[in-house]
Amino acid sequence: MESTETLEFGHADRKGIYEYVERHGAVDPEETRERLDLDPSGFRHHIAILKRDGRLEEADGKLRVTIDAGAEEEYVAEDLEFHIRPARQEDLAGIVGAIRQVAEEKTYIEAESVADEIDHENALLRHNELQSRMFFVATVEDEVIGWVHLHAPELEKLSHTAELTVGVLEDYRGHGIGSHLLSRGLEWAGSNRYEKVYQSVPSTNEEAIAFLEEHDWETEAIREDHYKLNGHYVDEVMMAVEL
Q: Where is the N-acetyltransferase domain (predicted)?
């Protein structure tokens, strides 16, 4: 997922179409044309070029930013069948619900802020000159039961790093779903030339810390009394893994 600073649109209207689609996640073509006040023939021409250049794609009557994130994978663990795939805009409500449920169980503050952000923006994936945001989901019978999220600011001095959150609903733990999600997220990060992935969790979330340590993450620093939870000060554990 290269920075949009390297994208060449060649026309202001083409750039405007891309930015509109990127900002809204998945849009109706005719509604987009009307909102941008573009004539039909010119709009069709620009869409054709954006599709040809791999910037936009159209599926189920919606325009979306093209993000190459691999295919859906199927797994069977004991009597549970689940799938892991790149998230789609239609997964937004399911992802927000899953994140908030996990955050409420284990006090996952960074993940909770992600849920608030995507719910407020009503856009799941982002790829613009300021940030890249990618999600993969684990599903059981099309229900989102886990996620992995990566966020990377498009700042030169931080362009080698990405922040990650990952979680699985409690009823589906113990089947290796979290490990598969983490692996998929790190694989994507590595293929997009990120060198380091990090996240922070409260020290009280011992399960998350143990999970990351089992996957070769290391504690880089501890900020004492960084969180205040239920009237008590709690340390922030800052963890990372080199790719």
A: 82-240
